[in-house]
Amino acid sequence: MFRSMLAKSASPVKQGLLHRGFASESVPDRKVVILGAAGGIGQPLSLLMKLNPLVSSLSLYDIANTPGVAADVGHINTRSQVAGFMGDDNLGKALEGADLVIIPAGVPRKPGMTRDDLFNINAGIVKNLSIAIAKYCPQALVNMISNPVNSTVPIAAEIFKKAGTYDEKKLFGVTTLDVVRARTFYAGKANVNVAEVNVPVVGGHAGITILPLFSQASPQANLSDDLIRALTKRTQDGGTEVVEAKAGKGSATLSMAYAGALFADACLKGLNGVPDVVECSFVQSTITDLPFFASKVRLGKNGVEEVLDLGPLSDFEKEGLEALKAELKSSIDKGIKFANQ
């Protein structure tokens, strides 16, 4: 039914979810928790995860307004049972037994704000949520959406280390929106079917740390160097483009929810033993001299099964890789320092 519903719809989101191949056969029970479920990303993400038949239990948490979101989403006639939890006292109940925790909690970017401007607020939120995850569901996979991801992932890692629960295979920074944007922008210029496009995006998840590898895009198109540079910059500035277009009324919430749902689906497929699930993600890594780096990752029953090499890079991409390292290292160090204050 889920597949036929998607197939009848022209909605790009639903077609995208169909393209990613949500399963409809009998699958294991999986509990997914969304922390920040009543927010701008959290609400559409809750909807999309309710549509995913791999989810048997959907737990929605926020500091306010969660009962309404849970009641609304809970009326949808799909597999998962929905429960809403509100306030610090109920955070543990929301997390217990989780297989996957998705964290879009925090404040959004506003015009004129950099991702660093978000840091002090969102870093504190992520720190507190990570302490609770370590206590109540230390075995869960964690998908970090809260910005700045380049810092919030290292914060969570440090908190988990302090609690003695850290498993590098189970912590992911969600960079999928960079991949989604790169696919969309590339398809438009290459005049190819966007549903068939794949573009690895490596590095980090802010500004110049975002490095789309258009030389590895498929299907290949003979685009000029100038066009590749323009596509790279547009991918790097995609978040700012949306913030400015919304004119102070929000940031990239809908596309981020879509990207978050795609990556969560990939994680669930990996947990369920589906072979050859590969997505880009910001994870602990040794493929560069930085402790965390986004690249293609093979997902499996333990989370990260393998961090894949970058592969061959064009001269332009090699320059971009070197140019991003200092900024990415600074953001990582900032997160580590915050967690250890």
TrEMBL record:
GO CC annotations on file: mitochondrial matrix
**Could you tell me where this protein is found in the cell?**
Mitochondrion matrix
The record's section on InterPro entries has:
L-lactate/malate_DH, Lactate/malate_DH_C, Lactate/malate_DH_N, Lactate_DH/Glyco_Ohase_4_C, Malate_DH_AS, Malate_DH_type1, NAD(P)-bd_dom_sf
Q: Tell me which residues bind substrate.
A: 109, 115, 147, 181
Boundaries of every Lactate/malate dehydrogenase C-terminal domain copy = 175-338
Q: What is its EC number?
A: 1.1.1.37
Instruction: Name the reaction it catalyses.
Output: (S)-malate + NAD(+) = oxaloacetate + NADH + H(+)
- Which keywords accompany this UniProt record? Mitochondrion, NAD, Oxidoreductase, Transit peptide, Tricarboxylic acid cycle
Q: TM segments? A: none
A Gene Ontology molecular function term for this protein is: L-malate dehydrogenase (NAD+) activity
Q: Which residues bind NAD(+)?
A: 36-42, 62, 122, 145-147, 256
Q: Give residue ranges for domain Lactate/malate dehydrogenase N-terminal.
A: 31-173
Q: What's a GO biological-process term for it?
A: tricarboxylic acid cycle
> Active site annotated at which positions?
205 (proton acceptor)
Top enzyme class, one word, equals oxidoreductase
Q: Name one Pfam family in it.
A: Ldh_1_N
Its main subcellular localisation, reduced to a broad class, is: mitochondrion
The family assignment reads: Belongs to the LDH/MDH superfamily. MDH type 1 family.
How does this polypeptide assemble, per the annotation?
Answer: Homodimer.
Its name, as the record gives it, is Malate dehydrogenase
The top of its lineage is:
Eukaryota, Viridiplantae, Streptophyta, Embryophyta, Tracheophyta
